[in-house]
Write the structure tokens for this entry.
Amino acid sequence: MYLSKEEEKILSGEFGEALQKAMRLLVTLGDIFKADRLIDSKSAQISGVSYKNIGDAGLEFIKDMARLHNKIKITATLNPAGMDFKDWAKMNIPVSFAKKQLEIIENFTRIGAMPSCTCTPYLIGNLPLRGQHISWAESSAVSFANSIIGAKTNREGGPISLAAAIIGKTPNYGLHLDENRLPTVLVKVKTELKSTLDYSLLGYYIGSILVKGIPVIEGVSSFTLEDAKSLCAAAAASGNIALYYISGITPLPSGWSKSMKEDKIEVTDIELRNIMDKFNPPVDVDIVTLGCPHATINEIREIAGLLKNKRIKSGKTLWVCTSSVNKEISHRLGYSKIIEKAGGLIAADTCMVVAPLEQMGYTALATNSAKAAHYVPSTCNLPSKLCSLEEAIKLIIE
Ligand code: F3S
């Protein structure tokens, strides 16, 4: 990979060990993928934040970065951590876990990452522009950035997104190149998508059939922010979809029809219902988690509406996962009060997949997100039930 004189100097250690380490990571990645050069990166979303995922080795790596006085150069946000930083005790997070998690965040903050941990960075001020090159980890946000915003990012890992944030550059390969952003397969939706859950099911089905590839989805008429983030998350969870187009809604690149393969995928109600059946274990749910990807204010308003004057049964738990920004707005709008009065909790900065649920005595979880239903059994060792928002709440209220 070509390096400018200055980049060579960084790599040789002339500007210190911190920058050298970060540059080494980028150059190694660039060489593996045969990138021609480094390009400016305008934004980073850094994963590998929960103590549950990175453990002591990850904590030491971040402490090392902070000790070397590394500083992040571009807008950089963090993926969800293992707990709500303020209300972790209300979540019953073990104290030993909380101490380590707080140390991780302290060190990320020292190097200049925004100490707000969310998988919807585009809703809290990390919003790149169309066409900009960025370095995002977190598969649902990567897909949202590429497909909905029109920014350009590969699906990065935690250390690479951190290195890109420190250097302000990223290797030029994969989805940074226009020729790799052309759609490859047509997906015809032949059923009416009536809810955000349906979009989650559609994404899950496309990801599982296609695994990778770039779909153009036809037959979608209404499409909300909530639908978009759910589709992104599910397609990236069951497969490896990092970019899709919605016919008539997101702009297609010029000359796109030439790159299409002849095969097409048809989606009817049967395929979507089969996914619901897959996530329907015969269990008594004791925790309901909503907000995967992190809940928007619209979603929190809807949840508060369903919980008004209701009471969650004793022994049952409800977490509404969101960003700290949305938690504060929910507090100001009175939604938090309604949810807490019913016995639920708005859990900011964390989610059901990266919180240490497996250490907390729960036996079964329900969620309205196909991504969460997919990951919880393996990451938290809990059976997970997929249902609509209304059904999930019904499972735990008196
Ligand atoms: Fe976000 Fe956690 Fe779901 S990171 S996309 S809420 S699994």
User: Anything to note?
Assistant: The CA atoms of residues 280 and 385 lie 5 Å apart.
